[in-house]
Amino acid sequence: MSEDHIHTQPWSPPEGYHQVESRVPGVVVFAPEPEHAPDDQAVSYACPNCGANTAYDVAAGGVACEYCGYVAKVKTAQVGRFADDFEFTLETLSQARQGWGTQRQVLHCDSCGADLSISEGALTTVCAFCASNQVNVITSPQETLRPRFLIPFKIPPEETLPRAKAWLGKGWYHPDALRSNVIVRRFYGLYLPFWTFNAMVNAKWRAQIGYQQTERHYNASQKRWETRTRIVWKWESGQVNLTIDDLLISGSAPQHLSHRILGELNPFNLNELVAYSPDFLAGWQAQAYETTLPEAWEMGKKNIRELAKKACYQDMPSNQVRNFTMHADFSDESWRYILLPVYLAAYRYEGKVYQVMVNGQSGVVAGSKPVAWWKVWLAIAAILTPGTFLTLIGLPLALLGGLGILAIALGIILFVGGAIISINLYQHVRKSESN
Description:
- The chain folds into 3 domains: 38-199 and 242-308 and 330-367, no CATH class; 201-238 and 313-329, no CATH class; 373-433.
- 23% of the residues lie in helices and 32% in strands.
- The protein is built from 6 helices and 17 strands.
- Strands 6, 10, 11, 12, 13, 14, 15, 16 and 17 form a 9-stranded mixed beta sheet that branches. The protein has a 3-stranded antiparallel beta sheet with strand order 3-4-5, with no helix packed on it.
- The longest helix is centred in the last third of the chain and has 32 residues, at 402-433.
- The protein is flat and about 100 Å long.
- Mean pLDDT is 82; it is low at 1-9 and 34-42.
């Protein structure tokens, strides 16, 4: 047969397969299409009795209508720490469901760039992250992974403002205006994205370990025997095995949400994880992950290596260590994508935005607060004044004898101690002001 009669047919993947991202240049990878169960269809949250919009009610533990009293319990199962996790394989990613399981909208903030998922038909004109009113609503895409589990809100919305007011009123170095009822007007209940990671880690270490040795020697100039201590360094090695269980990594971008404040909301009790249901999101806001699974795993591995390093140091027979090296092998890695309940409020003070959060499960409050720096500088001046005063008084008295020397020595001690206290105070105050 001549080449003129040869026709090349374009190749297409088998039915039920689609192309996915390949990490090897020049290699095309296909995987099974994700399965779509019947509950992937959009769920309506109109009240069957009166037609009004319903929302998840924390006190009722179900989807409720505030007009006619209708309540429907959420059909889900509590799974706790026994919740299924996934291996790091292409197949599990391709088969994972996407979207929220119900039709939702996205509230986009033109000021800070944050995106929040809100219930269809919800009316809101303020960004929960930065308190800006430069927001607009768009249709929610269904391209992100669907969370498999979440912790429902346990703290009702009406408790957030009293808790926040009590927290804002603490701290002598903050402006008195923070005690006002108008600083924080409203909290937004958000389901925030988190990745959890499990892994087995085998960490092998090698280092020089220092041992103290005491020896006697003869001091010829003093004509006596003396004792001295020296460090003897020996190369040693060892290994430790770690089990990492439910390491939490935030799926929110740090430019929108303070990871420092989020960390202060811990711990969340993951024993109260339940299977995900769109019902929990009815009338509530949620955020899809901005930090992808590979990015979160890189952060997780960094944290795990620090834990492994700490365990290696604890395994050493001495705290005198130098030339430390460690090699960590990971195995049985797995992950979950979950939602955790957080109330968020943003407020402005003298042109700067501050965030306050309430753990929606435990009620713990954390956030950032402006600082009345004039109070801090007065306090630092008061701390440093005694040492400075004694030193200055002691200088002329030193000409008269020992009393001046004593005053100078005591003044220097008080000044150094005051300086240490002042530095610690400044660092603590500065941290409370930063998001």
